[in-house]
Amino acid sequence: MTTAQTTFADRHIGPSPDDHARMLARIGYADVDALIADAVPAAIRTGRPLELPAALSESAALERLRELAARNRVLTSMIGLGYHGTITPGVILRNVLENPGWYTAYTPYQPEISQGRLEALLNFQTVVSDLTGLPVANASMLDEGTAAAEAMALAHRLSKSKEPGAFLVDADVLPQTIEVVRTRAVPLGIEVVVADLSAGLPDDGALFGVLLQYPGTSGVVRDLAPVVAQAKERGAQVVVAADLLALTLLRPPGELGADIAVGSSQRFGVPYGFGGPHAGYMAVREGIQRQLPGRLVGVSVDAGGRQAYRLALQTREQHIRREKATSNICTAQVLLAVMAGMYAVYHGPEGLRVIAERVHGHARALAAGLRAGGVEIVHETFFDTVLARVPGRAAEVVAAAVERGINLRPVDADHVGVSCDETTTAEHVGLVLEAFGAASAAAEPPAGDQLAPLCRDSLYLTHPVFHAHRSETAMLRYLRRLQDKDLALDRTMIPLGSCTMKLNATTEMEPITWPEFAQIHPFAPLDQARGYLELIAELEDRLAEITGYAKVSVQPNAGSQGELAGLLAIRGYHASRGQEHRDVCLIPSSAHGTNAASAVMAGMRVVVVKCDAGGNIDLDDLHAKLGQHGEKLAAIMVTYPSTHGVFEETITDVCRVVHEAGGQVYVDGANLNALVGLARPGEFGSDVSHLNLHKTFCIPHGGGGPGVGPVGVREHLAPFLPSHPLRAEAGPQDTGVGPISAAPWGSAGILPISWAYIAMMGPDGLREATEGAILAANYVARRLAPHYPILYTGRSGLVAHECIADLRKITKDTGITAEDVAKRLIDYGFHAPTLSFPVAGTLMIEPTESEDLAELDRFCEAMIEIRREIERVADGSYDRADNPLKNAPHTAEQLVGDDWKHSYGREEAAYPLPSLRESKYWSPVRRIDQAYGDRNLVCSCPPPEAFED
């Protein structure tokens, strides 16, 4: 019998107290306190417990969230500004967004066990490519604003001139996009010029890029071909921020001559969520795909020649290129991209066009009614947004609409914008006409369509996948078929070091689809979002208490964006003191690749600090670098505990000497799950950190996103946190660095997850989770140490929250690589640990606190059995080239085929442990040829006959 589980913390933390006792005995400790005393340096231990509210039960937490949700008012929002009402098909809502088989999956770095989500992402890329008319689209961006900023940086890199000139932005671009572009341009030294381009480009000035909105923020639809041609003549790259739904009717950017298209897929079935998460997109012309930021899904083949999917051109990514990376993005918005892609699969091209025509029809009916009522319509040509001129009456009209349950956009005192969307009805149109005082004059839209000269005549979404799943039954089975190809947390532990995959509790997930949270427009009047504002304030305060910082901003919508926000705060702080010359960022050689890339994007120069043989920062080298760069030192970025999985004893010394040199200390919060309740970065010397809510605080990875990366700072950096031009409440307006994301509070729609986790765990549960993670990591390390050397340990031979199994000598002796072990683990039903990071030829293992002892032992037994298989290679029992490890993973098709010619048996391949006979995951493909996919890049849905041979 085991102790009864009575609290949420008992449910979240996998091992029982009895299991903990057994685990402690295995590593030689009588209790957890003794283990923590030996593992965590006394110098960083906090002197006070967490001052947080007592833990709530799951039902009490939901009741409190219901109270907060009730303080939000769900009106029909016709505000536009890049966010639109949409209907999520129930089959997608229930079977993707609310399905742990999709939302607990990890980034598809092991493609053999990610074929389902990779196919779904390929669908998304095809949707974007087809609708934009550009040949290559990536697997999603963080949002439209940051996608536009990335496009600006891409255009700048493509410029051949030593003095490339300015980035020209049309004044009719979304206002939040303009400001995100400005924020990102400043540290890169790029000049941004905003001008009215309705009559063409200005005559003078060098340009490297032009950004246009299509349709414009005001709703106008213009023929962009003339201004695109002008830009081309002047050697500029053209970026078009386009509405995907409008592109079902309008000529696509690629046909207009655009080089790059960016935007959001939000209106393809993804709720508002008060601003996110939503999948942005980017598509590019032929010839520049190797400079495309973000992830790119490509088509390759497996060892048997079968079609298979993988992440293509990965050498572009920040974790490899580091300070030479062209972007710091290390994640995407996969879960939302899957939803948007499936929305297109479900509706197909005909269905999307019907939706677009209905939206456009409502806009035309509205414009006709307003005209008939004597209201001036500013633009004759529009898709979904009508701009009305009402001299001096804008506030009155907007207020009248709110009384009728509808939000409109007050542009200025004389203009009101009205945007129609998929949820708009004839009744809504009538209520809007009433608000304008034009109800009695309602009229049918005129015959013909003013869009006709700009209408699209090219086909899109011709691939069979967009025509084969019209019934809900067919769609349900398609989603299930893809889900069954993957390994997610609902099947097995995902022991990825550095990227914790722990329980995403159902109670935490439940509120995000409540209409009171899901259906709030990010620019709705704030008196309609009081519950959100209270939840956000509580979450920011609790994160500040946990980390020891003075202030937290939740605006950054990924860890990489939190890094950038923190570095920009440091940059702003130095500038405020007249020390703009401080531009050197010291980064240990073990750091995450995003660190170096973010520093470069923040306008800093990266100087690498060596690590010693124990994986710690080399203090002698640090002092040497401080002596060399002290006068120009801006900051040091340190991951703590280190990326090597140890608590470095010298962290307080590192903080002290950097401060003495005039620099700031950035502690990367990626591994905060090893500190919560035990130590606070803001107390032991750090000035700023980003926090991965998608790691420590239980927001699920969703197959590679969404994420949230709040930034926490000490008091002196608080004036330099992110701000937002459309929401003064979102950050310090006078001194803030500007918006980091398009929405004022970033991906607010998933913040209830982390709020619920903290509320239900309470101060004691949060500390116990940290202790449990450290205990689990040391238990795994101790069990595996006789079989695989553990590369780095701290004091008393202990690790922090993760451990690194070193296979380099095994590889030298037997030819079996870390990758072979990773692929063989698939046959055992496991997702591999982190492969060859931060040290090539190793596996970094992080078990987390939420895996129970039986699962930890099952993983350890698999690793130990694989070690026995390696021994059979070493002693000659297995052929060095033809063995279960080199040929892993094995598919069912391969095992039942008539051409089995291997030197080992089928049973050895399929069932290396008896327990696998009860429950077996079968990889859908054999080992994938990585190089083939890069040499033969295909990144949209290939025709069925493409791989017949």
TrEMBL record:
Catalytic activity entry: N(6)-[(R)-lipoyl]-L-lysyl-[glycine-cleavage complex H protein] + glycine + H(+) = N(6)-[(R)-S(8)-aminomethyldihydrolipoyl]-L-lysyl-[glycine-cleavage complex H protein] + CO2
Gene Ontology molecular function terms on file: glycine binding; glycine dehydrogenase (decarboxylating) activity; pyridoxal phosphate binding
GO cellular component: cytosol; glycine cleavage complex
Keywords associated with the record: Oxidoreductase, Pyridoxal phosphate
Heme listed as a keyword: no
UniProt entry tagged with the keyword Oxidoreductase: yes
N6-(pyridoxal phosphate)lysine modification, residue list: K695
Assembly, per entry: The glycine cleavage system is composed of four proteins: P, T, L and H.
Role noted for this protein: The glycine cleavage system catalyzes the degradation of glycine. The P protein binds the alpha-amino group of glycine through its pyridoxal phosphate cofactor; CO(2) is released and the remaining methylamine moiety is then transferred to the lipoamide cofactor of the H protein.
Family: Belongs to the GcvP family.
Protein's recorded name: Glycine dehydrogenase (decarboxylating)
Species classification: Bacteria, Bacillati, Actinomycetota, Actinomycetes, Streptosporangiales
Encoding gene (name): gcvP
